[in-house]
Amino acid sequence: MAHYDLLVIGTGSGNMFLDKRFARLKTAIAEEWHFGGTCLNVGCIPTKMFVYPATVAEEAAHAKRYDVDASFSGVDWSDLQSRIFSRVDAIEAGGREYRMSDRQPNNTVIPEHVRFVDEKTVITDSGEEITADRIVIAAGASPTIPDTPGLDPARVDTPGYPIVTSNSIMRLPEQPKRLAIVGSGVVAMEFAHIFSSFGTEVTVIARGPRLLQDFDGTASAEFTKIFTADHNVILGAQPAAYRLGEGEGAPVTIDLEPSGRMPDVDLPASVEADIVLIAIGRHPNTEGLDAAAVGYDTTADGRLVVDDFQRVYAGGKPVPGVFALGDISSEHQLKHVANHEARVVGDNLAIDVAAGAPGAAGEETLTRSSHKAVPSAVFTSPQVAAVGMTEDEARAAGHDVTVKVQNYSDVAYGWAMADDPGIAKIIADRDSRLILGAQIVGHEASMIIQPVIQAMAFDQPADEVARGQYWIHPALPEVIENALLGLDFSPR
């Protein structure tokens, strides 16, 4: 049985904090998959490297709208993959090599799946038991695979099987001619944009009446209106069964049934596609770790329970020396949140080590995580970005709410874009004048939301943000300025 001062499970954001503060510790890193985790290998980074050329292709295809004579004739799928993954794979390999090299003499990489035997002991798939004084659990999350007739979960993402997740769709050997996407959330909408822009015939199968339903109702409705105008979307439907054709390359038939979320839906009996992307959500990897089985507390959706110091709980109390971060414990499945939590874990782990025994550090010495004004964005077409509460959430929380929805077409840059559709919605408290939330649907939403994030993070009143600084004219952020100016506040 091997014993370590510190065991880290997962190398996404869990690989960030191991710096010179921990150089003298005997450390093990357990990673059964790719170094860099979801973001680097199958998430944020490669998807955006596909999104950008997809947006270029879409703009070329729609150039006539702007009186420009241009066209799109296709994408070199192989070269595009090579450009993207030559960089991604090199970074992954470099991260692995660094942790395994002589530059990290006190570090051991365990390239296997591990699961807990007790709170401070894990066992590898090959049968080796490992104990550690301190543990950081950063094992992330995985795509959820539904239990649907005709779908073999064990074969999803394996070579030749035509049903895939975000883990493998970007590595397909050929661009599919027909792609069916099951789901209507962030992952589904980004890949719908990518593949439809590249010329694939895309069909989206959505259970609800709107796309991106986790966003504010106004933003979700606006996005659905824009997206369905140019894409084949079937609302209120779900797969009843999958029927795979005989032989490699044979199409998949998806039999449809009403989801029950929309009344009186008129659905096609089935949809046929060459590849099916399952994008119905992601779940934390706690089950594969046997975390609950050894007594770690978990939420209803399977996440590890942590406190503001990122300490893992068991029996309602923090386990001395055990921390968690990222998707395995956070309700925000976002890389920027995981990175923040990794910094907090690094600080608190260093304090814990300096205190002597695991858990000996007083809470007054520890750093708290902050999940105030957490933003998110969907890199589809049009982009969607959000921060803070939705309007419904703000009203339910008891705020006296003031809301302004500003059209992109109301500002000069919107005119330059030939009145492309898009909105910015700002929600604020009428009395305090503080911004409670914002949702943006439109061109570069992920960028122009930043002034709102900053205002919320530093408690800047909305009217001061609007009037207390210059806004470049005629830049697109004027849509934010005008939305802020349109809020109706109580007299001072």
CATH class of the largest domain: Alpha Beta
- The CATH architecture assignment of the largest domain turns out to be 3-Layer(bba) Sandwich
Alpha-carbon Rg, integer: 24 Å
- Unreliable stretches covering 5 or more consecutive residues: none
First-to-last CA distance:
68 Å
Q: Estimate percent helicity.
A: 25-40%
Helix/strand/pairing category: alpha/beta
User: What is the count of structural domains?
Assistant: 3
Approximate shape: globular
| Overall number of strands | 23
User: What is the beta-strand fraction?
Assistant: 15-25%
Please, what is the CATH homologous superfamily of the largest domain? FAD/NAD(P)-binding domain
Structure description:
By secondary structure, the chain is of the alpha/beta class. It has 3 domains: 220 residues, FAD/NAD(P)-binding domain (3-Layer(bba) Sandwich), CATH 3.50.50.60; 137 residues, FAD/NAD(P)-binding domain, CATH 3.50.50; 105 residues, FAD/NAD-linked reductase, C-terminal dimerisation domain (Enolase-like, domain 1), CATH 3.30.390.30. It is 27% helix and 25% strand. It is built from 13 helices and 23 strands. Strands 1, 2, 3, 4, 5, 6, 17 and 18 form an 8-stranded mixed sheet that branches. Strand 5 and strand 6 form a beta hairpin. Helix 2 packs antiparallel against helix 3 and helix 2 crosses helix 4. The termini are far apart. The mean pLDDT is 97.
What is this structure, in a nutshell?
InterPro entries: Class-I_Pyr_Nuc-Dis_Oxidored, FAD/NAD-bd_sf, FAD/NAD-binding_dom, FAD/NAD-linked_Rdtase_dimer_sf, Pyr_nuc-diS_OxRdtase, Pyr_nucl-diS_OxRdtase_dimer, Pyr_OxRdtase_I_AS. It is built from 13 helices and 23 strands.
